[in-house]
Write a structure and sequence with these properties.
The protein is an alpha/beta fold. A nine-stranded mixed beta sheet has the order 1-4-3-2-9-5-6-7-8, with helices on both faces. Strand 3 and strand 4 form a beta hairpin. Helix 3 runs antiparallel to helix 4. It is globular.
Length: 226
């Protein structure tokens, strides 16, 4: 009986040992190092997203591919970061172009009134395309949009009719009134990005504007951030 008890006990121990070895083997096959690699890749992606001027909380991390042919850029989103003086073109979560820009002659802060020299901040759409503007090519933004109109109306800057007309234009995604006290005619245009010199527009070097004009349409999103 003692012999059977001894060998029975040994069998249980061997069984437990085999089970432990099996678990360890399975864990090693999962390659824990991949977790570190994944974290590293995520960190790199987040870093690239921030480099692209896209905070992680605003968009998924982006890849960078400046070699994407112009002909392959068909549905871009535009991001302008005023402090960085950069315009980023993003398509399908890939940063495909990065251009320097010049801003209004008083670049800090959101636009509040006609003549304040500030480039407006917010989420806009391209509402006009002009291939022969006085600054070569130009893309009109639908400023003022709802955010600016509401703020101005409650501050007594806009009349009720002006406020209504801006909201209607915003809902229809067409050009809003450009001759109220909020100002208007905010364009992305050529003319040079060497300094802040516009009345509130976003200026690019001519060759960069030529590219941007090719890849954007009426309705393209333009996000302007501080």
């Amino acid at each position: 009986m003692k012999v059977r008890s001894f060998w029975g006990k040994r069998a249980v121990e061997w069984g437990v040992l085999c089970l432990v070895l099996l678990v360890i083997s399975a864990c090693s096959m999962q390659k824990p190092a991949n977790t570190l690699d994944s974290s590293k890749e995520n960190g790199q992606n987040i870093s690239e997203a921030r480099t692209a001027g896209q905070p992680a909380q605003e968009r998924e991390p982006a890849r960078v591919d400046y070699l994407t042919p112009i002909a392959d850029i068909s549905s871009p989103e535009i991001y302008v970061y005023k402090e960085k003086r950069r315009l980023y073109v993003v398509q399908s979560n890939v940063l495909v172009r990065d251009y320097p820009v010049g801003l209004g002659f008083h670049p800090t802060g959101d636009k509040e009134r006609e003549g304040d020299g500030r480039t407006p901040e917010g989420n806009f759409l391209i509402c006009q395309r002009n291939p022969a503007s006085r600054f070569s090519k130009a893309l009109g933004l639908n400023y003022p949009e709802r955010q600016h109109a509401e703020r101005a109306f409650f501050a007594g800057v806009l009349t009720p009719i002006e406020f209504k007309d801006i909201l209607v234009a915003y809902e229809r995604q067409v050009t809003p009134p450009w001759h109220t006290k909020l100002g208007g005619q905010i364009f992305i245009h050529a003319g040079g990005a060497q300094r802040d010199w516009t009345d509130g527009c976003i200026a690019l070097y001519n060759s960069d504007m030529d590219e941007l004009f090719q890849i954007t349409t009426v309705g393209t999103s333009v996000h302007v951030r501080p």
